[in-house]
Recover the amino acids of this structure.
């Protein structure tokens, strides 16, 4: 399969733009060191153990998240990350999920 000269000429620019977009997206969803974050179950057992694991590791439950089975919590990222991965869940920034500010 031949790659056109036009594509070869623009490929480095397209790749750089894609890397910038992916990097900005990663920075946007990274949870804060402390504060509100959204806990998302991604594994089969994540939904059942999510609240108990979060509370056991110092998080304060704030509300149910906008995604089914998710929770909005207030806590410390470093204390939550390892236990959450163990139960099949991840933490993302609350603003990335559209949780907004408290009313």
């Amino acid at each position: 399969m031949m790659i056109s000269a036009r594509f070869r000429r623009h490929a480095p620019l397209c790749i750089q733009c894609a890397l910038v977009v992916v990097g900005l997206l990663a920075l946007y969803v990274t949870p804060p060191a402390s504060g509100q974050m959204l806990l998302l179950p991604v594994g089969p057992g994540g939904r059942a153990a999510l609240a108990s694991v979060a509370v056991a590791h110092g998080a304060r439950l704030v509300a149910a998240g906008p995604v089914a089975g998710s929770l909005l919590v207030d806590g410390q990222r470093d204390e939550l990350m390892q236990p959450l991965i163990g139960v099949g869940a991840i933490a993302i920034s609350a603003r990335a999920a559209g949780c907004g500010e408290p009313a």
About this structure: The mean pLDDT is 84. The longest strand covers residues 34-41.
